[in-house]
Specification:
60s Ribosomal Protein L30, Chain: A; alpha+beta; 124 residues; single chain; globular
Length: 124
Amino acid sequence: MNRIISSKNAPKAIGPYSQAIQSDDFLFVSGQLPIDPVTGIMSDDVSLETKQSLENIKAIVLEAGFKLTDIVKCTVYLQNMNDFTAMNMVYENFFGSHHPARVAVEVAKLPKNALVEIDAICHK
């Protein structure tokens, strides 16, 4: 059975999708833009954006009853691959010794002109 996950500690979906869907022991977290859920503001610094996107993922993961160490895969979408090093430093600090599988790709444009968007898959 699938369960829709919604956290008030992450920004509301800006389209016809859920923040996340739990399917049995899996959690599929939709791409998270770096929008502060309290202010609705988004930074224009890739490091701050990366941190906010990850914090949004964390809020959703915890709401679903999962842990950050349950994250098994992330996809990072960058507007500019030249921002990879800055993103990677924040990502590494966020996850510490836990290293989910990851893909990082450059895209032509992201919603709301974000510099980064990150999605995640979790498994218990």
